[in-house]
Design brief:
Nuclear Transport Factor 2, Chain: A; globular; alpha+beta; 6-stranded mixed sheet; disordered N terminus
Amino acid sequence: MRLATLVLVACAANANPASAPIDRVSRERDVGKEIDDFHDAAAHADEERLIGHLMPDGIFMGTDANERWSPSDLRAYAHPRFSQGKGWVFHVKRRAITLSRDGEIAWFDEDLQGEKLGAARGSGVLVRKDGRYLLAQYNLALTIPNERFLEVRALIDR
């Protein structure tokens, strides 16, 4: 009877993959690689690779208040530029990645230096699907030093 109980317990434990410990370092590295490749695709004007990093219902939020794009919206924005070989380049200065307890969801924030835009911040959420992390949301924001905010606000309000 004891052996049968042990077999049932072992089967139940294996049936629930969430009960197995995850390699958090490896998962964080996977997340970082996905984000890095997303940036690399943009820098090399690789439309398919860029869009391939987004979930089908993913959202990309750009620096303009009107830039809340689905993958097809992002494609429509990027295609004219990418077809001319023009991408956008951001260098990661710092990144922090956090994983859900089961490692299936990751969120991050990163400080960026854009070759055109200058200092910026990226943040987002990735969901693991079929062994790969995909962006459910990416938010690109320009950072404004607090001591310069009123000056920038005045420019925006004009």
